[in-house]
Write a structure and sequence with these properties.
There is one protein chain. This protein is an alpha/beta fold. Helices cover 42% and strands 22% of the residues. It has eleven helices and eight strands. The longest helix has 17 residues, at 120-136. The radius of gyration is 17 Å and the shape is globular.
Length: 255
């Protein structure tokens, strides 16, 4: 396959329903490669989708979000990579964010977060996310992260750790070059907030961030805050408990 303009990498673990909605908005297109990194090869709910979307490159065999995204990126042919959660909904004209990043000499970037729910709680959380990205320089994977593939590879990709693999990558990218904050709003499902409670989830998120920025390891964070052991992360957490924080976790000072 010749090099394409963009490879979209979507990590999934039992996410057939939201993945189907997302892929419906991403029909085959010249210059675009779609990659789904599946954490459970035995997931029967994905079978109809796999049969219907032969244009998608399905990558199986690894589990844990960081490991899945690395596995997908290893098969990518695009000059740019877009890492996208299955429950995301891209904004109209979403490709413009990458074009703007290129024009401004940026090596990576993200979208603004929008939560698919009404009320003042999601509005307040969205405002807090904008401040976090602007003032702390920390973006999460639910905002959609795009990066030049050569830069991603030069940095060694994602560190396969149980938490904060996205924030870790963004911090390394910001040290390597310019980072673009797009004004386009990427919408994500409110299911996790609704499941855990708006303030329990947000408070947990803030606690994780503060402790991460003050130097606690992702392994310690995951062990001490089990509500954040989301099912798509459980594979990497299990590997960490079995083998300890190996070289993929990186030096403590990097977190």
């Amino acid at each position: 396959m010749p090099e394409t303009a963009l490879s979209v990498v979507i990590p999934v673990y039992h996410d057939a329903e939201p993945l189907g909605r997302l892929l419906a908005t991403l029909p085959p297109a010249p210059g675009r490669q779609l990659i789904v990194a599946n954490g459970d090869p035995d997931d029967r709910q994905l079978v109809p989708l796999r049969q219907a979307r032969s244009d998608v490159l399905w990558v199986d065999g690894v589990r844990g979000r960081g490991a899945q995204m690395n596995a997908g990126a290893a098969r990518a042919q695009g000059r740019w990579l877009l890492f996208l959660h299955a429950d995301a909904s891209l904004p109209p004209g979403w490709e413009r964010a990458l074009e703007t990043a290129v024009a401004r000499g940026c090596i990576a970037g993200c979208y603004q977060l929008a939560i698919d729910a009404a009320g003042w709680q999601p509005c307040l959380i969205e405002w807090g996310v904008r401040l976090r990205v602007r003032w702390l320089g920390v973006a999460y994977g639910d905002q959609g992260l795009f990066v030049e593939r050569t830069r991603f590879e030069a940095l060694g990709g994602y560190r396969e750790q149980p938490l904060m693999e996205d924030a870790d990558l963004v911090r390394r990218l910001r040290r390597a070059g310019r980072f673009h904050r797009s004004g386009l709003r990427l919408t994500v499902s409110a299911r996790r907030w609704q499941r855990d409670g708006w303030w329990r989830r947000t408070g947990g998120n803030l606690s994780i961030l503060v402790r991460y920025l003050t130097g606690q390891t992702p392994e310690r964070l995951a062990a001490s805050y089990p509500v954040w052991s989301d099912r798509e992360r459980s594979g990497s957490a299990e590997r960490t408990r079995d083998t300890g924080p190996g070289p993929a976790a990186g030096p403590p000072e990097s977190r």
